[in-house]
Design brief:
By secondary structure, the chain is of the alpha+beta class. Strand 12 and strand 13 form a beta hairpin. The strands form 4 sheets. An 8-stranded antiparallel β-sheet has the order 2-1-14-13-12-11-10-9, with helices on both faces. Helix content is about 35%, strand content about 15%. The two termini are about 35 Å apart. The radius of gyration is 24 Å and the shape is globular. It has 12 helices and 14 strands.
Length: about 375
Amino acid sequence: MRALLRRRRRLAVLAGLTATLLATATGLPAVAAPPRPADPLQRQVDAIHGTGAVGVLAEVSGPGARSIARAGAAVAGTRKPMPWNGRFRIGSATKTFTAAVVLQLVGEGRVSLDDTVERWLPGVVRGHGNDGRLITVRQLLQHTSGLRDVAPEISALNSAAGYRAERFRTYTPGELVRLAVSDAPRFPPGKGWSYSNTNYVLAAMIVERVTGRSWAHEVKARIIRPLGLSGTSVPGVLPFVPGPHAHGYAAFGTEEATDVTALDPSMAFGSGAVISTAHDLNRFYAALLGGRLLAPAQLAELTDAVDAPELGVKYGLGIAEIPLSCGGTYFGHRGELLGYTTWTGATADGRRSAAVYINSDGGQETQKAMTALVDRELCGTG
């Protein structure tokens, strides 16, 4: 086989030389081979990189096809490329994992979406006008509970100095909830919509109370292992990204980026702690929307979306419904956790999926380019 390939290469070289000699002898210009058109996905990835992202990787999956492209650097200031199957913190895309676990428990009759937080976590949500007796599981998953977001209380997420001081700090779920309910709710339960990581801390705590096992165990047993997501993990309090990965960078609103790759993810318990790959995220969202993880009744609950004015889209239970430029909608989630930003989504039938992530902050132009990539690929025009 190698000898055959070498012979073909020699013939190609000889053919090129012959064409050049003929052109020289006749005085005619040599005819160059027509340039190959640039790969559409690569063009979109290059466009995202051009907005200032350190590195970019995108993967698209559809019936019988898979495309992947990358640009930029895995380590700022170097030429080290983004790893093809690199792992990264998926941030709030974790919420879809948590919602899927809760809905599986609903399908098993072990919990109801209409159960109150108080039933499963008595006394946990109390004080300053917060009352777990008035908040349902559905309202947690839908972000209609009114509970304050705990993220602004986490120093490591809000400044370079805070990151350096507390990147290895471990939080308990109860501590996170106490920080969130130390202030009045944004609105009475069910009377508005507001994105809050606190909702998913509580949802994960309910998973643990219902099953008697850890939230991490249930995510692994119910999603990661059945789908064979070999690049996906729930790291607990381990501050490092395992396996091949790009470094993550955050500027905290300044001109200087800080390497924030190391981070104790306990601050994002239930809401943003999962580590995954673009390939695994595509498989997860395709399986979820394709009906492989939830019974039809629970899948209908997942995708029954309400207006989410803060996001400019609709939001179901741990998943957003986003308009497509070609008509219709897709379902997915944005994820961001200090140094990594991702957009992932799939068509309503799960047949096409797209995931793109960067290893740095995502400004407005970067976000627009990332959402445009997902839209274009899910519309089938990539």
